[in-house]
Amino acid sequence: MSKSPITCHVLDSSTGKPASGVFIRLQILELSKNDGGPDIFHPLAKGFTNADGRCLNLLPPAGSDEEVKEQTALKAGQTYKVVFKTKDYFDKTGRASFYPWVEVCQILVVSCPGRPAHPLLDIIYYQQT
Question: Could you give the CA distance from residue 116 to residue 114 in angstroms, rounded to a whole number?
Answer without folding.
Answer: 6
